[in-house]
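Hey Z.,

So I finally got round to the JFZ thing we talked about over coffee. Here's the setup:
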Amino acid sequence: MDKRFGMFIHWGPVTLRGTEIGWSRGHQVALSDYDNLYKEFNPVLFDADTWVKVARDAGMKYITITSKHHDGFCLWPSEFTEYDIMATPFKKDVLGELAKACEKYNIRFCIYYSLLDWHDPDYPMHNDGSKELDSQANMDKFVLTIKNQLKELVTNYDPYMLWFDGQWESPWTDEMGADLYSYLKGLKKDLIINNRLGKEMTAIHDKEVDYTKMIGDYDTPEQKIGKLNLDFPWESCITIGNQWAWKPNDKLKSAKECLHTLIRTASGNGNLLFNVGPMPDGRIEQRQTELLDQMGHWLRSYGESIYETTGGPYSPTHEYSATRKDNKVFIHLFQNNQSELVLPSLKGVTVLTASFMNGSDVKMKIHEGKYNFTLPHHLPDSISNVLVLQLDKPARDLSLIR
Ligand code: JFZ
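And the result:
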């Protein structure tokens, strides 16, 4: 949770069609066509060091790669299937090369693994619209394959975190999730595991979740910024475009939208797992790397207000949000045309100084229990500004101001 910012990577032979990974199988892309794309998958321009340096220079502290998505294709040489990278003309261990590059550049290596596999005959569902479970399937054998592959992944690549998915279909049960959770913690005690081993999760839903029912170490809001939560850790997974896997001419977010998304997740006391979709030739397209570089540029100046911070004490508004660390509260200003800012005063502490991060002091008056800040006409940063309140006491004990 101190790392706050990671790269999500959705990639596989499907990029040869530019459609959505997993979900387009047997839909936008005919089943036989989709399942034979691996024969053409040859990303000769793939360079693990380049990908990891793009993440590092963006200010990202960990990388999470789709080892196996819902289409069942494995991006690593697996003893437990023929449907893997060694069956392609490429024949390179993508996961192994990324894990090594992460070690080299001090970036944490993490693995996404889909529990459902519509391609595997032992799994009773195939996303083909049939209501009945496949009577030829063998779920026990399927779960054994999952355990064997996860042992292979943990043993061979020593991941920092496992990001599960695909647990929402009826063949998978919470019992299986709980069993797998203890099996994996038995393999590596400090392995971090997300909450998609069990049915209870926020994901794309707005419904209240029961954290006591969750199986996993943290919640995973999807395609939205999680709510401010100081009790249960969370990490939002969000696309830089609209699709998880690469899509030609996908509509990408602006640099300001990308950064405000990161700042708002940290202000909510959560992490951002920001997704890129590399191209079929193995490169991450320039449009995406330029946006990530702009995020890195901002973080090189203002990273102290994001990394190893806690969300709050002010709840996010349209205008601003807050993070805190030691005796400092960082007020993140999203608008750059406001002449003044009014905040409720903080109980039990004194604001010693107010100033822009790496910038000038800001005039502050206390009036009727409120802080009134007079802001200069031009704010220092064109994307997002940080007002630092230096307190006379640690900020961590301040209660939330809703
Ligand atoms: C899942 C995957 O299906 C998707 O391809 C991508 O990998 C994303 C990170 O995770 O997307 C979901 C997960 C859960 C729900 C919907 C989409 N859900 O709970 O409705």
